[in-house]
Design a protein that fits this description.
By secondary structure, this protein is mostly helical. 75% of the residues lie in helices and 0% in strands. The chain contains eight helices and no strands. The longest helix is centred in the N-terminal third of the chain and has 17 residues, at 2-18. It is elongated and about 55 Å long. The N and C termini lie far apart (57 Å).
Length: 147
């Protein structure tokens, strides 16, 4: 029931206030808030995960993806600055993280930094299997960068 779920989520939140260094706990709490449709507490939990695990690519990526949810997939605008900061932290911790390479390439392309976009997406292509359904999209975006 909703009451039981709420009690579990509140219990986890209380435990994390007592032991805030538990990054996995913050990520679980954020996921629980996502399931409950509670955006602001979710972002708070993700920010706590990043604050207590600054070297953790997964925490930065989870926050970046939450910040990018309202952005349409076909946007031609630069991505929100707070999401870009998190994505850069992801690549610092894990230079081969595919989602971060994709989104930072998109931000660079949408911001007119074509060389940067090309470098990021070429790196991403090296990571994608030849059979990957995402490969064609990346190749198409790379082709659009050419004059």
């Amino acid at each position: 029931s909703q009451k039981m779920i709420r009690a579990m989520v509140d219990g986890l939140a209380a435990k994390l206030k007592a032991d805030p260094a538990n990054v996995d706990g913050w990520l679980r709490l954020a996921q629980s808030y996502k399931v409950l449709g509670e955006g602001a507490p979710r972002l708070d939990a993700l920010r706590q995960a990043v604050a207590h695990g600054p070297e953790r690519a997964d925490a930065h990526l989870a926050l970046a993806e939450a910040l990018l949810e309202p952005v349409p997939a076909d946007t031609t605008e630069p991505l929100p600055a707070d999401a870009v900061i998190e994505l850069r932290a992801v690549l610092k911790a894990d230079p081969n993280q595919s989602n971060a390479l994709w989104y930072l390439g998109l931000d660079a392309a949408n911001s007119g930094r074509k060389d940067e976009a090309e470098a990021l997406w070429q790196h991403l292509l090296q990571k994608l299997a030849p059979s990957s359904p995402n490969r064609a999209e990346v190749e198409a975006r790379l082709a659009k960068l050419k004059p």
